[in-house]
Specification:
Mean pLDDT of chain A: 92
Mean pLDDT of chain B: 83
Oligomer: heterodimer
Strand content of chain B: 15-25%
Number of helices of chain B: 7
Radius of gyration of chain B: 22 Å
Largest sheet of chain A: 6 strands, antiparallel
Helix content of chain B: 25-40%
Shape of chain B: globular
Number of strands of chain B: 12
Distance between the termini of chain A: 138 Å
Structural class of chain B: alpha/beta
Low-confidence stretches of chain A: 1-23
Order of helices and strands of chain B: HHEEEHHEHEHEEEEEHEE
Structural class of chain A: alpha+beta
Helix content of chain A: 25-40%
Shape of chain A: globular
Distance between the termini of chain B: 47 Å
Chain lengths: 602, 205
């Protein structure tokens, strides 16, 4: 009897226990969910930040409980592409399987709130610039209006720098201005005025984000990118790049429409180093220029590799591809035969590009082979395939072409070893480009772009007869293709076939009167043929279109000197020496002018 | 007959009362509004008046678009909804946004309509009356009634594949196709499609 009573009490007690908050097995918001959300989600899911709704309170989170289960299980959230265990990166936001299960358990038990005492304090985040007060802030000259609807927009914005003298920049911080539409940004610089000129071509701020130019580069081997929730890299003080008044900061910004018109005016904060850099990073950019993905194939591999000629420390890594890429594998085959994973992405997302900075730089000794191997899905089953039905897709910069790139920011031990790496890498790039272009032409003999590229590569190697064959093929089939004509014209100058070169250059100017390089080359021909007054005219027209053009800037004073227009020639040489005091040609020019004046006095 | 000692009864009863109090205490700690459960079940316009969304109408079709003020996918569809409203304006097809979030104020809904330039009116559905009638699960999701019969429920188009994944352009305009059939006087066979967006079930009534 007594035992039965005890049993009854136990049964009653256990029955009551599940309805009280005494049971510590029940997942609650305050104890179990809030810590995860505050640590991983709140940085963006708070008022004024990137996300469209906040996740700071029980109400906020319980109103989206099932959705959170879905997006964490698919790993859509938090936004972080690299797989755990294949590289340790700063700012990684990766939920463990256990954390993901906690959300599901909480949903299953009806999303209880829990004891107030269990709730951790609200997270706090720094306001304003995260790296402190910038030494210089540059800004988009005007607002950009993003329309209410439409596909994602990629646009370059040019932020001019106004500074006297030169400084060294150790860090940059991007401030989007409108966090709702800014999705990610890549920040580079342009030391010429080319970007500004592209910007000024029309009334709309900026220029096409898919348009590229050789002059727009990561500054001196340093990556800078931005995505919501990421912490800007403060730099190390011994790595810095030179900034002067001729530099523009160029932001390639990816924006998503929201359903209503939006405005944006972004800024970049620049933080100066106290002294010039003592360490010199280098960016190794691996590409595949002969991508060719047949229609319908769901697992097409694209790969390339490079053998390191020196010891380096790998500091940051950045992959790139377009919509069809699905998996990305990047690894190092070490000299001892082992494989060191550098990065692994199982679900590439074109709209989430960024660079990933290692918590600890990865040592890669001389002889290491760096490899990338990307997998593409060009089948109908890929909902992100831009083509329906699927089509053959090849290498190209437009978003319906494909690319495969791996950018590595590495730190050599010394300036000398950096120079050695640079020389080796240039040679590798030349050979790799040649191999790829030859592949493309062999596959598609009528491919105009590939034949133009092959012509250029052959001409650079001095294989002029072969180059000429390809240039003439292209010009015949695509008479308005200026780059082929210009490459051909340049080769003809080298071969001293001035009359043939001149007719190509004049044909170019008929197609595009603003093609300043044609004027520059016509000026050079005129100098060769001892017609300095004709040369002067061409160099002036070239300068008018592009004041930064080096050919005309160097040679205009020479054409003036040859006409005895000594005062103006002297002025131009002195101007060159002012901005580049070591310019030997300008110094020689001034010497020649002094000698000529002495001759004239006799 | 076996009987529990009185003291055990008392102990069990006390525990049950304590459990009940704690549960009530939990609910009162929550800041969730309880007003909606006190209101009579129904659908309301933004002036607070009870409406019969499927009442007598001369419209050939009645379209409900379930939405939230803070659902990014719903908001990205605002221009498309506007386009459809304008396209079918002369075809006697009526459109109504429906807000199923019981905690949002009508002021925020009115502001939302203005912010996204919606050219149609809106209802509040705090008790999920329309939600249940249509079977809507997602925002944004469309439901079309012809002669008070549900003929379509699902996505507006197939632009969104999943969270964070969208086509550059929709290849199927499901809602528009249904309305074209209605406008042409054709019979629409009842069908549904899967919508992508926030879950209505998370918005507890």
């Amino acid at each position: 009897m007594r035992n039965a009573s005890v049993l009854m009490v136990a049964m009653v007690l256990s029955g009551c226990g599940s309805e009280t908050t005494v049971d510590t097995d029940v997942v609650t918001f305050n104890r179990d969910i809030a810590p995860i959300v505050f640590d991983n989600c709140a940085v963006c899911h708070r008022p004024g930040d990137a996300a469209p709704f906040s996740l700071l309170s029980y109400d906020d989170v319980s109103k989206r409980a099932e959705q959170i289960v879905t997006v964490t299980q698919s790993r859509f959230m938090p936004p972080w592409l690299p797989e755990a265990g294949f590289g340790e990166f700063l700012d990684q936001r990766h939920l463990t399987d256990a954390q993901i299960q906690i959300f599901a358990k909480w949903f299953d038990v009806g999303t209880p709130e829990g004891k107030p005492d269990d709730l951790p304090p609200q997270p706090t985040f720094p306001e304003g610039w995260q790296l402190g007060t910038p030494d210089l802030i540059v800004e988009m000259p005007e607002e950009y209006t993003l329309s209410a609807t439409g596909d994602d927009v990629y646009r370059h914005f040019v932020l001019p720098v106004s500074i006297k003298g030169e400084r060294y920049v150790r860090a940059m911080e991007f401030n989007p201005g409108n966090l709702r539409i800014a999705h990610h940004a890549i920040i580079k610089i342009d030391r010429t005025r080319w970007s500004q000129r592209l910007d000024q071509k029309d009334e709309v701020p900026g220029f096409d984000g898919m348009l590229d130019a050789d002059s727009i580069q990561p500054p001196d081997g340093v990556f800078c990118s931005w995505a919501p929730g990421r912490t800007p890299w403060p730099g190390t003080g011994d790595i810095a790049w030179k900034l002067d008044g001729n530099t523009s900061v160029v932001v390639q910004l990816h924006m998503q429409t929201t359903g209503k018109p939006e405005k944006i005016r972004s800024r970049v904060g620049l933080f100066f180093a106290d002294h010039p850099p003592t360490k010199f990073p280098f960016i190794i950019s691996l590409h595949s220029y002969d991508i060719d993905i047949p229609a319908g194939v769901s697992d097409h591999h694209v790969t390339n590799r490079y053998v390191l000629p020196i010891d380096v420390k790998l500091q940051a890594i950045s992959p790139h591809a377009h919509f069809l890429a699905r998996e990305m594998h990047a690894y190092a085959e070490m000299p001892d035969g082992s494989r060191q994973w550098l990065l692994k992405i199982n679900h590439w997302d074109f709209s989430r590009q960024e660079n990933y900075r290692y918590v600890r730089p990865v040592s890669l000794p001389k002889g290491t082979v760096v490899v990338f191997d990307y997998v593409y899905d060009n089948s109908e089953a890929n909902p992100l395939n831009p083509n329906h039905p699927p089509q053959r897709v090849r290498y190209g910069v437009q978003s319906d072409d494909e690319m495969a790139e791996l950018w590595l920011q590495v730190l050599p031990d010394s300036r000398e070893s950096r120079d050695a790496l640079s020389a080796d890498f240039q040679e590798y790039k030349r050979k790799d480009a040649f191999r790829a272009v030859l592949n493309r032409v062999n596959r598609d003999p009528n491919d105009i772009e590939s034949r133009t590229s092959l012509g250029v590569l052959l001409a650079v190697q001095g294989r002029f007869a072969g180059a000429e064959k390809h240039f003439r093929f292209v010009i015949e089939r695509a008479p308005r293709k200026i780059d082929a004509r210009f490459a051909y014209a340049t080769m003809l100058i080298v071969r001293r076939r001035f009359s043939d070169s001149r007719s190509q250059l004049k044909a170019i100017l008929k197609i595009d009167p603003d093609y300043f390089k044609a004027h520059g080359s016509l000026g050079l021909i005129a100098l060769q043929q001892r017609m300095p007054e004709v040369a002067e005219e061409h160099f002036r027209r070239c300068q008018k279109i592009n004041p930064d053009d080096t050919i005309s800037r160097k040679n205009l004073p020479i054409s003036l000197f040859l006409q005895d227009k000594l005062d103006e020639a002297e002025e131009l040489f002195r101007a060159t020496l002012k901005s580049s005091p070591d310019n030997a040609k300008a110094r020689d020019g001034l010497k020649a002018i002094r000698a000529r004046r002495r001759e004239q006095m006799k | 007959m076996w009987r529990l000692p009185l003291s055990v009864f008392w102990l069990a009863g006390t525990l049950l009362v304590v459990a009940g109090c704690d549960t009530i205490g939990e609910k009162s700690q929550s800041s969730r509004a309880t007003n909606s459960s006190a209101m009579p079940s129904g659908v309301y316009d933004l002036q607070g008046r009870l409406v019969d969304p499927l009442g007598e109408t001369e419209a050939r079709a009645v379209v409900f678009i379930f939405t939230r003020t803070d659902c990014p996918i719903s908001n990205r569809y605002a221009p498309e909804v506007k386009r459809l409203v304008e396209r079918f304006a002369e075809q006697n097809i009526s459109f109504h946004l429906v807000y199923p979030d019981p905690e949002q104020t009508t002021a925020s809904m009115k502001a939302h309509l203005a912010e996204y330039d919606y050219p149609c009116d809106a209802y509040r559905d705090p008790n999920h009356v329309l939600v249940e009638k249509t079977g809507a699960r997602i925002t944004p999701e469309a439901a079309v009634f012809v002669a008070k019969q549900l003929v379509y429920r699902g996505r507006i188009d197939n632009r969104f594949v999943d969270f964070g994944q969208s086509r550059s352009e929709a290849t199927r305009h499901d809602l528009e196709q249904v309305l074209q059939q209605v406008a042409a006087g054709e019979t629409v066979e009842f069908h549904t499609t899967e919508a992508v967006g926030c879950y209505i079930s998370d918005l507890k009534k």
